[in-house]
Amino acid sequence: MTLPIVSVIKNHTKKPSALLTLLAAGFLIGVGSAAYWFLSQRQTSSSGLPVGVNIIPQDALFTVSLTTDPKQWQQLQELGTKETQAEITKNLVQLRDRFLSENGYEFQKDIAPWVGDQVTLAILSPPTIQPGIKPLNKHGDGAIAQQSMVMVLPVKNLEAANSILAEPKTLKQGKWTEHTYQGITIRQTDSQSGEKLSAALVDQRFLVITDDPQATERAIDTYQGKASLATVEGFGDNLRKISDHHPFAQFYLNVPIAGRLAAVAPNSPLPAQVLTQLQNNQGLAGSLTLEPAGIRIRGISWRNSQSQRVLKVEKTAETMQNRLPADTLMMLSHRNLQSLWADYVLISQKNPLAPISPEQLRGGVKSLTGLDLDKDFLSWMRGEFSVSVIPNSSNEDYSQDFRAGLLLMVQARDASNGKSLRKSAEASLKKLDEVMQNQYQFQIQPSTVAGKPVINWITPFNTLTATHGWLDDDIAFLVVGAPITDKIMPKPDQTLASSATFQETVPVQLHPNGRFFLDMERSVQNFTLNTVFPQQQTFLDATQSIGVTSAVSDDRSMRYEIFIMLKKGETKGTG
């Protein structure tokens, strides 16, 4: 088994977007005294933190640390179907051959005898990324500056590593040259293409490889005392919260720098409002582990200490998955719909990357119903809510046009004080009924399901289109599409929460702020999905289900846990 990430150093493209895409495909998708301890003690890695944190400069845009354990790479290839295994194998072999084999190296023979348990690859930010200043490339023509890459390989067998460095393989193009910086020998290639692969053994403990000699010098300066990744505000504290024993991968994204890069990109500039919001967020990090049934990702995002906006730590009961039938295909839930909307408005207003702008949604509701989204609806939607897709099992002729029903459930109760808001909700729903009757000529037909009153919307063609009513005393529901009301009234005996697939997929370690569940296998069987990324169908066919849990960790950080349950096929290797 080879270490595929090594090959990225020589052959990555210089364009940030292409590089980030390559890294994403490879996955899918302390401060103060602690920082001083990192710098003074020069440990290869502290517990729960990636290797090389005291070598990588503080302004690194993105880092990913990968295990070198061949058993874990083999385990990765045993997950999924034969098709996904073949795709993984093809990419690993290609990456291996581009860097190792083409230059006369073999991982097991030349690298494995001396490398440590983990290697880290970092993308450094352009040297002139500053607020309001567009970074120039080396030609000074206004294009975005090229980003350098640094790879840190810890040395566990110095003798074996020195033997490789002392007699480097003969290059097919160009030659090796040497120079000394801060007392450290730097070897670099000098090829006609202009690409310079640079390597240095730092403190006899780390082999640092870069695609730019200046990046090598920056890494040496960092190790000798300049600000490193370990000194980023909140980096150590937050990564330790999600640390795993021997993870397959760990990653980190510097959000403010990523925002500034996006702001100066010629094709997708971010407005000042969005950039300001990004500056309040310091980092996004995650740890990926392989399990017998799939892949688990533990993530965390945190705000910097200057951020005026803090997160609310609220612990509310979660009940929605206990009200849904076991055959539910998808569920998205959150503790408070109104607060979720407020967060979305904050980050998406005038943001060209947002899927839909708040102004468009408000305008659409006003145009279709004459009602105000905020005053007539969100004002009473202050409790737990869920959006679900439930398959149609009705035999009625009028229901055959719909394969599933879309179900919205909202608790009309203020989550902060427990006050019931049902009267306000009933008044809004009555207004909505009047609009559907007077403006769209729907029949508003009272009925009962399981002894409880409901309101049906019947089209002019005598087809049931929607149903709304109440569960218990303060949970309003609206069903659109297939008539699946009888699946939630009365409360189902076999609930989604009790189903084996839900229990095995949705993480339960965190006290949830929100949850997401998708039965991928059954959804693909029932619906045709638009193609979003290459090899999408291969990925969909290999995935059984996906579960996500989010939680407020404290007033400045959010935790995430994702589990992707994969089908397991026959074992394949890279050979």
Structural class: alpha+beta
Count of runs of 4 or more consecutive helical residues: 18
In which range does the helix fraction lie?
Answer: 25-40%
Strand content: 25-35%
Q: Tell me the radius of gyration.
A: 27 Å
Summed over residues and divided by their number, the pLDDT gives a mean of 81
Biggest beta-sheet profile: 20 strands, antiparallel
Give an overview of the whole structure.
Helix content is 29%, strand content 26%. It has 18 helices and 20 strands. A hairpin with a 2-residue loop joins strand 9 (281-291) and strand 10.
Per-chain topology:
Blueprint: H1 8-11, H2 16-27, H3 33-41, E1 60-67, H4 70-78, H5 82-99, H6 107-111, E2 118-124, E3 149-154, H7 158-166, E4 175-181, E5 184-190, E6 198-202, E7 206-210, H8 213-223, H9 235-241, E8 249-254, H10 255-264, H11 272-279, E9 281-291, E10 294-303, E11 330-334, H12 337-348, H13 358-369, H14 373-378, E12 385-391, E13 404-411, H15 422-438, E14 443-449, E15 452-458, E16 464-471, E17 475-481, H16 500-505, E18 514-518, H17 520-526, H18 536-542, E19 543-554, E20 557-566
Antiparallel strand pairs: 1-2, 1-8, 2-3, 3-7, 4-5, 5-6, 6-7, 8-9, 9-10, 10-20, 11-12, 11-18, 12-13, 13-17, 14-15, 15-16, 16-17, 18-19, 19-20
